[in-house]
Write a structure and sequence with these properties.
elongated, mainly alpha, 5 helices, single chain
Length: about 160
Amino acid sequence: MSRLPSTSGPRRTIVAALALGYGAFLAFVVFWPSPIDQPVEGLLDRAISELHERGVPQFVDYAFIESFANILLFVPVGFLLGMMVSLRWWPVALLLGPALSAGIEVAQRELLEARYATIEDVVANSIGATIGVFLAVIIRAVVKARDQKVIERHEAIKRSVAAV
């Protein structure tokens, strides 16, 4: 019985390329010497005030937006980690996102005087990474189930042709 070709090689190559690209972007953002939003701080304050005047709830403030941005920043991190590890080892990816975030915060605290390292950032980043891991696991599980059906159908066709 012949085996169907694996798709792991191309997937790993694509994920590695995306991880390198996103890793470079993330390094740029997190190791910028001053807070990345500092040049547009006044604009952000005005935009938030405008949003409040237009009915957006008051809890949507700078801290909320910053926290939400941190979550969004780490969703791709978790997704890529979830795509890199073996499907059976996906829980390990859940630990890698928070570990990476904590490492980044420690590096910011030690290396960049103008940056602020906070536990809130680690929590927000970890939430984003966890969402990303779960997205990757769901996608991989759906693809695996689909592939299993395709393989079963292929084997059934082969058996029916051989029986004739």
